[in-house]
Amino acid sequence: MKTFFKLTLCLVLCLTMHTLNAQVGINTDGSIADNSAMLDVESTTKGMLIPRMTSAQRTAISSPAAGLLVYDTTTDGFWFYDAGWQSLTGSDEVLWEKSGAHIVNKNLATTKVGIGTSPSAKLDVAFNDVAMPSIRGVGGSNIAILGKSSDGAGISGESTNDFGIIGTSANNDGIYGYSSNNDGVYGQSSSGKGIRGLSITDDGVYGFSTDKYGVQGKSQNEHGVYGESNTESGVYGTSTAIAGTLYAAGVYGDSDDVIGVFGLSDDDVGVEGYSDKSYGVCGESHDKDGVYGNTSDSNRYAGYFNGDVYTTAMYQSSARKLKQDEQKLGDALTLIGKLQPKSYAYKTGNYRSLNLPKGRRYGFIADEVEQVLPQLVKAADTELFDLDKYERDRKAAEAAGKDANKVRKEVSEVLEFKAVNYTELIPILVAAVQEQQAEIADLKQLIHNLQND
Questions:
Q1: What distance in Å separates the CA atoms of residue 379 and residue 417, rounded to the nearest whole number?
Q2: pTM of the entire structure?
Q3: Rounded Cα distance, 431 and 270, in Å
Q4: Do residues 281 and 271 make contact, with C-beta atoms less than 8 angstroms apart?
Q5: What are phi and psi of 5, to 5 degrees?
Q6: Cα 67 from Cα 241, distance rounded (Å)
Q7: In a domain, 308, yes or no
Q8: Which of 10, 26, 248, 324 is the most buried (most CB within 10 A)?
């Protein structure tokens, strides 16, 4: 009997040893282990616990094997060994974590993120594929890319062969920047546009700064700042820096070889400048025109000003190579005699937005000049704005904590009138004086002859 028991025990031990050297399945339904697993644990109601220990106990493990896995109760996370202990989920070590629908870098105070480059900023992206932008943001009905900084650039873009920053929007600003201590929007390019913004219904480029340029763009051989808009300003920038200081400009564009600031709009202002205490628009060039305006519509004007215009000198193209069909002007005295100089006052109260001159003025009535010299009279029209509503809307915007400078003037009516080219009256006056002098000379000669007779 004892011999039978010993034989039975030996058989059980042999079978047990064979099982331990084969695959092991632990479950409640009797299923065998998966062929790919040495240990297959299956349960729908319970989990598996691996060794749990403190950080001190973990690091005290002697000669840990590669792949050794433990749960650290000090860091509340899993650790594995691979030529050193590596954290899988520890709260103090992992940089990225899921927070609701977002992925968040928890340690940006000391960490920079570089994609394709060693980072020199919080997020630094470098990509040499000319067919693909380094960063692209699609915002749907909100901001595509938002950058904030208390002392530096919110968003900085640099390119050696294309746009430093390009923004497009179907329903808001193409590019919007705000800074309390630097440029609202800054872009630089050595071969393309420093900044380009495109918008369907708002400003192409909008920048605001309390201490520097609202918008600043630089380019060596393209536009410093380029903005397009179908219904708003191509480029719009504001600055509250002290007037007369270096950074008092709302929009500042610098280009070595082309246009500093270029604005294009299908339905509104290409470039708009506004200032309470300094220049609305200031243009300066060392080798080209400071400000250049052009229109191909003979019924419009390359430059239009509401208010007095001051200049230290003025020139008009008058080279013979530009002219044809030259004729000597005659009968100038007769023409001058038909003109009716008038003294008058403008209806400044009726047309506030035109900034018409005050007090008594001297000149001609366009309708009367047209009867004598029709080629000196040109039809014109201008938009009149409801300034009372504009002022109310600005106050309402300020009260609501919004940017009052973005309040637009609304057109109340389009005023049609006629304008006189006073400059071309000068040659007629000169000819009239010459004719008169000739008559005086003839009379003097006649008197002289009569006296000698």
A1: 6
A2: 0.54
A3: 42
A4: yes
A5: -65, -40
A6: 61
A7: no
A8: 248
In this structure, are 265 and 390 located in the same domain? no
Contacts of 85 (CB under 8 A, 6+ apart): 58, 59, 64, 79
The residue type of 164 is: G
Asked if the structure places residue 284 within a domain, the reply is: yes
Give the three-class secondary structure for 381: strand
Domain boundary among 51, 77, 103: 77
* pLDDT tens, position by position, 154-166: 677 766 666 677 7
Per the structure, the count of domains in the chain is 3
- Residue of 251, 268, 274 lying closest to 199 (CA atoms): 268
The single residue listed with the structure tokens 């246009």 is 259
* pLDDT tens for each residue of 335-349: 999 999 999 999 999
In the listed set 77, 104, 131, which residue is the last one of a domain according to the structure? Answer: 77
> Tell me, what CATH number does 371's domain have?
1.10.10.10
Q: Looking at residue 18, what is its pLDDT?
A: 43
Amino acid identity of 97? E
Amino acid residing at 14: C
| Residue 77 backbone dihedrals phi, psi, to 5 degrees | -160, 165
Q: Are strands 342-344 and 251-255 parallel, antiparallel or unpaired?
A: unpaired
Q: Cα–Cα distance between 51 and 57 in angstroms, integer?
A: 11
How far are the Cα atoms of 53, 359, 362, 366, 370 from residue 340, in angstroms, in the given order? 106, 20, 11, 10, 11
Q: Which domain holds residue 14?
A: 2-77
**Do 288 and 340 fall within a single domain?**
no
The DSSP output letter for 305 is: -
Residue 236 domain flag: yes
Length of the chain in terms of residues written: 453
Whether 258 has a pLDDT exceeding 80, the answer reads: no
| Amino acid sitting at position 285 | S
* First-to-last C-alpha distance (Å) of the chain: 184
E strand spans, 194-330: 195-199, 205-209, 215-219, 225-229, 235-239, 251-255, 261-265, 271-272
Please, which residues bridge with residue 209 across strands? 179, 239
Please work out, in degrees rounded to the nearest 5, the angle formed at the alpha carbon of residue 285 by the alpha carbons of 283 and 291: 40
Q: Are residues 246 and 179 in the same domain?
A: yes
How much of the chain is helix, strand and coil, in % rounded to 5?
20, 25, 55
